[in-house]
From TrEMBL:
Keywords: Phosphoprotein, Repeat. GO terms for molecular function: protein phosphatase regulator activity. It comes from the Eukaryota. This is Serine/threonine-protein phosphatase 4 regulatory subunit 1. The keyword Calcium does not apply. It comes from Carassius auratus (Goldfish). InterPro entries: ARM-like, ARM-type_fold, HEAT, HEAT_type_2, PP2A_Regulatory_Subunit_A. Regulatory subunit of serine/threonine-protein phosphatase 4. May play a role in regulation of cell division in renal glomeruli. The PPP4C-PPP4R1 PP4 complex may play a role in dephosphorylation and regulation of HDAC3. Plays a role in the inhibition of TNF-induced NF-kappa-B activation by regulating the dephosphorylation of TRAF2.
């Protein structure tokens, strides 16, 4: 009986629900909106908010009804339940877009009804409503749905008031974050007048570090909006304060945005002030700050690139003679006279490091033992001989002291860390500061060039014709780098070695820190992935330094190329073609080709990086060097995992591009076997890509009739007469591509490919006949050549088409009978043979 009573109650509830639904369906959209907007059930009001857009669409043809819906939105905005208000705010951007599309019928709908709700919710007491309104505001700005005057007069003052000192910490932090995101959207004028003063004030907020962290995280965006003048006058002093903040999270945020700040600064400020500031972040006591600083080191160095850095990407003409090439390459990399027409002798001197700094760097590099010689017996029995250079000491005595402010700051940092020297992290930072202090002493000539222009004028490097000396020096470096023999380096006298180690693009201390990222101790004290970050930013650093300074990065690049972590080598493999464009063909052949060859024999994870840009790299090589890789292309067919079919698919795509780099004979001898092998791959995607490769090979061989006839005969034998139906289907597809892409003349096609193609009309597999019918109807008969009586195959073509039109398979009959234009109208019929492609 209990079960029966429950069943009766359930039946009554169901009947009541059906009555409710039937009554609800009888209501108009506005009636339904009026009914549920005042419901005591929260979920009903939420459903009203979600259905507002549908209601507007339903009444969009009546302007009065649209206004009524907008008035109900204003009423719903006063709902006491936060979830209802948040749901409404999520729909505001969609409603605003609808109102914009129907602007003639609903004028001023957004500014009168919707924008006040968004502005009011920005200061709502509920956190969820505030965050939803902030997200909606950004969407409205991105879609350009708000008038500039409304943003400046209504939105910006509210956000500035929310960052007032008496606001709560959460509200202040959220408001500052939305201000920083709005700055790029509202432009420089509004940002400088309304946002910049409060932003500078919040950078010094002593009560809550969360506000300072938000400012630090968005500092680069703010600098890029206001420009260089306001950045150097107002923002940089605040940035220096944030970089020395007591909270490590703030300093870490500064390190992450350092590149953007540097890009908005002038070259002089970047070199004199930001460089020393970045050194302090690299030597920060917090490991997280050091980690972020080293990750930003490469991007920061890239901001030192001059306007002529991109010229290093252009290669010389291969027809030029060797002597002319060296001179042209050296001057094209970065001609000093073209960097800045207003470059004075003082400015040119500022870009030159001291020779003693280069000498010490060279001695340190010479003392490093190559990896393959770590167990050389010679290193065990000999007594280590300290390297002393009297000239270096005398030169240091003669050198004027470095600026006292930077040295004093570094010395204070070292003194503060010395009591904690037992900590490995602290010891590593002391070593970094000591190296920076030594670099400051050795590089004092460079700093004096900025601080004492009069002394720089008397320097022998700043002559009246600096371009001639620099061009000759660059040419000498390129000539030295192109020589593969180590003996030539040993024959240089100490003076030439010092000159060969000079670079005048970035401060030497920054470059030394970047080169130290390959030190194994860095992985222990900073970041296990530091080598990968170094590899990732190396092309940018190389572009900044230019090919004339490749000697500074060569050892680091070779160290990364032999790193134990495959992710590091993979990163280099994906960017080696970019580095080749920067260095030019001479340095590429000497230094990158051996590393490229080692990547070819590496893991598949590394080889895929080389394979994806195989064409981009090989096209930069000399023809003789490029031809050597024809013998190695077949190695890509062998993978660590046979299921890695995407590797073979990428190979087929690269081979299509490589066809233009080789002669017809080389394509026939080396690339043709690879293409035929890929055409028989087990994976369909690889095969269909390879069929396109075959059609391009036909195009390449069309210039040589003997090679073309041989290849076409091979296609007929291997595919048209294949025992597998997929091979015969492939032959029809290759024939179709050859005509559509005009890979060979119609006479050649009619003579060599058309007769065996027509034989497929009697193929027992319907899929083959379907593709044959589509090829004949949609490709061949579209050409006047096959319709006219001039063609001797016209009768055979018509006979084959008639037999296909009476085929037992309905799909074959359809594609043989219907005109190609009508097949586009029937997508269902086209989809029946989509599997054939």
């Amino acid at each position: 009986m209990a079960d029966l009573s429950l069943l009766q109650d359930s039946q009554e509830d169901t009947d009541g629900l059906l009555d409710f639904v039937s009554q609800d369906e009888m209501l108009t959209p506005l009636g339904r909106l009026d009914k549920y907007i005042s419901s005591e059930n929260i979920f009903n009001r939420q459903m009203v908010a979600r259905s507002l857009l549908d209601t507007l669409r339903a009444v969009s043809e009546d302007e009065r009804d649209c206004v009524s819906v907008l008035e109900q939105i204003d009423r719903l905005a006063d709902d006491p339940e936060p979830t209802v208000r948040a749901e409404l705010m999520e729909q505001i951007p969609h409603i605003a877009i609808f109102c914009q599309e129907h602007r003639p019928s609903i004028p001023f709908a957004f500014s009168k009804y919707l924008l006040p709700i968004v502005v009011r919710y920005l200061s709502d007491q509920n956190n969820l409503v505030r965050k939803t309104s902030q997200a909606a505001l950004l969407v409205l700005l991105e879609q350009e749905l708000m008038e500039r005057g409304d943003v400046e007069s209504l939105v910006c003052p509210v956000l500035v008031d929310l960052t007032a000192p008496d606001s709560s910490d959460d509200v202040k932090t959220e408001a500052m974050a939305i201000i920083c995101k709005m700055a790029p959207m509202v432009g420089k004028d509004v940002t400088e007048r309304l946002f910049l003063p409060r932003f500078c004030e919040m950078c010094c907020d002593c009560r809550m570090f969360h506000v300072r962290k938000v400012c630090a995280a968005n500092f680069g965006d703010m600098c890029s909006v206001v420009g260089g003048e306001a950045t150097e006058e107002l923002l940089l002093p605040r940035f220096f304060q944030l970089c020395s903040d007591n909270v490590w999270g703030v300093r870490k945020a500064c390190a992450e945005c350092f590149m953007s700040v540097s890009s908005a600064s002038s070259p002089e400020v970047r070199r004199t002030r930001l460089s020393s500031l970045f050194i302090s972040l690299i030597s920060d006591p917090s490991r997280w700050v050091r980690q972020a600083a080293f990750q930003s080191l490469g991007p920061f160095i890239s901001t030192f690139a001059g306007p002529c850095s991109s010229s290093g990407q252009f290669f010389r003409d291969e027809e030029q003679s060797g002597s002319q090439t060296h001179s042209t390459d050296a001057e094209t990399v970065c001609p000093p006279q073209e960097q800045d027409e207003s470059l004075t002798a003082d400015d040119s001197q500022k870009c030159l490091p001291s020779s003693s700094s280069s000498s010490e760097e060279e001695e340190e590099e010479e003392e490093e033992i190559p990896e393959q010689e770590l167990f050389n017996s010679f290193h065990f029995w000999r007594t280590p001989i300290p390297r002393l250079d009297p000239e270096l000491e005398l030169e240091e005595d003669r050198r004027p002291p470095a600026p006292p402010l930077d040295r004093k700051h570094l010395q204070e940092l070292i003194e503060n860390l010395e009591p904690h020297i037992d900590d490995p992290d602290v010891k590593a930072q002391v070593d970094v500061l000591t190296a920076a202090l030594r670099a400051t002493a050795l590089d004092s000539g460079l700093e004096d060039a900025f601080l004492e222009p009069q002394a720089a004028r008397s320097n022998p490097f700043s002559s009246q014709q600096p371009s001639e000396h620099l061009s000759a020096d660059i040419q000498r470096r390129v000539t030295r780098d192109d020589d593969d023999s180590d003996g030539s380096d040993c024959c240089l006298n100490p003076e030439d070695e010092r000159k060969s180690k000079q670079q005048d693009v970035v401060p030497q201390a920054l470059l030394e820190q970047y080169l130290s990222m390959t030190d194994p101790s860095r992985a222990q004290t900073v970041d296990m992935e530091i080598a990968r970050h170094c590899a990732f930013s190396l092309p940018g650093v190389a572009l900044t330094l230019g090919r004339q300074n490749w000697h500074c990065l060569r050892d680091t690049y070779e160290t990364l190329a032999s790193d134990m972590q495959w992710k590091v080598r993979r990163t280099l493999a994906f960017s080696i073609h970019e580095l080749a464009m920067i260095l030019g063909d001479q340095l590429t052949a000497a230094h990158l080709v051996p590393i490229f060859n080692s990547f070819l024999k590496d893991l598949d994870e590394v080889r895929i990086g080389v394979l994806k840009h195989l064409y981009d790299f090989l096209k930069l090589l000399h023809q003789d060097t490029r031809r050597k890789y024809l013998y190695q292309l077949q190695e890509f067919l062998v993978t660590d995992n046979s299921r890695n079919w995407r590797f073979r698919s990428e190979l087929a795509e690269q081979l299509v591009l490589l066809l233009e780099l080789y002669s017809a004979q080389d394509v026939h001898d080396y690339l043709r076997p690879l293409a035929l092998c890929l055409c028989s791959d087990r994976v369909s995607s690889v095969r269909w890509t390879s069929y396109r490769l075959v059609s391009e090979i036909i195009r390449k061989l069309s210039s040589c009739s003997s090679l073309l006839v041989s290849f076409l005969g091979e296609l007929v034998e291997k595919f048209c007469h294949s025992q597998k139906w997929s091979g015969r289907q492939a032959f029809a597809f290759v024939c179709q591509l050859s005509i559509e892409e005009e890979c060979l003349s119609l006479d050649q096609f009619s003579e060599h490919l058309l007769p065996p193609l027509l034989q497929l009309a009697s193929d027992p597999v319907p899929n083959v006949r379907v593709l044959l019918a589509k090829t004949l109807r949609q490709t061949l008969l579209e050409r006047e050549y096959f319709v006219s009586s001039v063609n001797g195959q016209q009768e055979a073509l018509e006979h084959t088409l008639v037999s296909l039109q009476t085929d037992v398979d309905k799909d074959v009959k359809y594609f043989a009978s219907v005109h190609p234009s009508s097949t586009r109208l029937n997508e269902d019929a086209m989809s029946t043979t989509s599997s054939t492609y």
